[in-house]
Design brief:
The protein is mainly alpha-helical. The protein folds into 2 domains: about 10-55, Arc Repressor Mutant, subunit A; about 65-195, Tetracycline Repressor, domain 2 (Orthogonal Bundle). Helices cover about 75% and strands about 0% of the residues.
Length: about 200
């Protein structure tokens, strides 16, 4: 794995290359992304690409890292509100609305990379797995806060609920691209919310 640049200009160039590569991968898939196209979009030469990255696999690891960070950063505000039932519903509704705007296209960018690269490179798989761990941890923290606030019963297994919620989300993101129907995500998240609701106080 290549070392990080020591100068700000170098770091900016590297970020530009990663952004260009992420865009190409999102459009053409990881295996269809060429270094020539990445270089053209980033306005860098092939020699510059190899200055910042050892090879294409090294660049794809950086893409996996950047993609994971972007997906999670896009939910930071929603994660911060997961300490209440209303915040949990807002998180689910926002993800469903995003899928509806996309017409059911795209799925989960992180899961897409797992399918394309996870079985080919253990380092990339580890980066993506870490992203899912961070995603689940954010859900777990929100559910734990709901227990602390009395919105869920004491003793609720928040580890299990967080894992089930993430699994429901990922399953719900697989079907819309196949069916071009974002309602699959709505159903999946409604199921997760119903499971969580079963742990709310009864009075």
């Amino acid at each position: 794995m290549s070392a990080q640049p020591v100068t700000e200009q170098g770091r900016q160039t590297r970020r530009r290359i990663v952004a260009a590569a992420t865009s190409v991968v999102a459009e053409k898939g990881a295996l269809g992304a060429s270094l020539d196209e990445v270089g053209a979009r980033a306005a860098v030469s092939r020699s510059q690409l190899y200055h910042y990255f050892d090879d294409k696999t090294d660049l794809l690891r950086a893409v996996a890292d950047a993609t994971t960070d972007a997906v999670l950063a896009g939910q930071n505000e929603l994660f911060a509100g997961l300490d209440s039932w209303e915040g949990l519903e807002r998180w689910a509704d926002t993800l469903v609305e995003l899928q509806a705007k996309r017409g059911g296209r795209g799925g989960c960018p992180v899961a897409n990379l797992v399918g394309q690269l996870g079985e080919r490179d253990d380092d990339i798989r580890a980066v993506l797995a870490s992203g899912f761990d961070r995603w689940e941890a954010s859900l777990r923290a929100g559910l734990a806060a709901m227990v602390g606030a009395g919105e869920l019963r004491p003793g609720t297994d928040v580890d299990w609920l967080a894992a089930c919620t993430l699994a429901s989300l990922q399953g719900g993101l697989v079907l819309p691209p196949a069916r071009r129907d974002p309602r699959a995500l709505r159903r999946a998240l409604d199921g997760a919310l119903a499971l969580i609701a079963a742990h709310r106080p009864t009075c």
